[in-house]
Amino acid sequence: MPMSTALIILAAGQGTRMNSDLPKVMHPIAGLPLLIHAIQAGRSIEPDMTIVVAGHDADLVEESLGDLTRKLHLVRQMDQLGTAHAVAQALPVVKAHRGDSIVLYGDTPFIKPETLLRMKEARSRFDLVVLGFKTANPGRYGRLVTVGDELKSIVEYKDANESEKAITFCNSGVVAAASSVLSDLVGSVDNKNASGEYYLTDIVEIAISRGLSATAIACDESETMGINTREELAAAETAFQNGMRSRMLANGVSMTAPETVHFSHDTVVGRDAVIEQFVVFGPGVTVETGARIRAFSHVEEAHISCGAVVGPYARIRPGTELAEDVRIGNFVEVKNALVGKGAKVNHLSYIGDAGIGEKTNIGAGTITCNFDGVMKHRTSIGKNAFIGSNTMIVSPVSIGDEAMTASGSVIVRDVPEGAIAIARSEQMNRSGLAGKFLNVLKSRKKN
Ligand code: UD1
Ligand code: MG
Which residue among the candidates 73, 265, 347, 377 is catalytic per the annotation? Predict the structure, then answer.
């Protein structure tokens, strides 16, 4: 039976260097808070318990976990006295746990499952396993002092001397040990250092002094990116986006300029779909195989079916369902609407809270007037209908199959199947009046 694992995820720090009112671990990458990225990374190894330590703005942080909360143990660190002190808050929950504990940091969201598995494997040979990474820019990371395979100590940047600062093997923060060993070690950490904090990193030297063994295994720098500043957050977003783009390309999605396409953490795009330049995906989007999202479009919470073409310059908002072969053209906004198979909304329209039947054509400039200032109302348009350009559809209104509206109409009542609705003022032509009218205007200007 594989050894059971408890995950302890530290998320109590304020993140002063973010210069933000929002707790650091709630800042999003690809639309998902850092902390949820970290929890998901940890869950991939199927821990039998996951403990999140919140502290700074704990209410907000815990709330941001939403439904996940049910599967987590939430503990609080009232004062943020350091990473070892944070782990100590989780110990009452972990105490009864027989197996290993792995500590993850909420601000280090990209650790891969295979890396955590390698740590578990190294645990069979060492009492304490720390995850490190080699980097050309060690910056303010803690430095790993090693001799051969053995880890001797971790020196925090603030406490490091020049030769220690020159070390390029750095601490990711991830630590694995038997839960009982971790409890003992953390209980012995003091705060006699440059920051006056209880450093989790001190457990290495304490372990060695007690005759336990420690090692550091290395992973790629991209996995252990710790986010402490807005600049690091932006760099992490770029790294995540690059990863998404590579996975999309590998899955058979065509992108003309992948570096300009921005995905949400949950975007799903089918094989042979085409995503043109400068497309932005918000959360909750599925693009089926063979659909095409043309340049400069923005899409969120929508389902786009096979063969549909969206954009250029389209805005697809939450609750949109585009059936097969739909055409949505430039400067069209669609919200909470179902557009039937083969229907077209090609130019300059707003379609909101609406259902549009198969093969219906919506003329340029059509607007569903769905909001009366207090409530939203629905528009229903049947199959094979033809909506003339610049029709205002004042909902709630229903337009039947094969019905038509005349251009420029303001439709306030239902239109029966097969009828033409004309709702605009009659045209008058007055011969020769144009010149006379202009002369009157010019004479007024002179006076
Ligand atoms: C820490 C490590 C450093 C490592 C780096 C990797 C220590 C002492 N230092 O430094 O060796 O290279 O991470 O990113 O561990 N937290 C709490 N309670 C606290 C303090 C922190 O929950 O009292 C949480 C934070 O929310 C954060 C994580 O612990 O998620 C790390 O804290 P942070 O202050 O970012 O530590 P670093 O200075 O980055
Ligand atoms: Mg950090």
Answer: 347
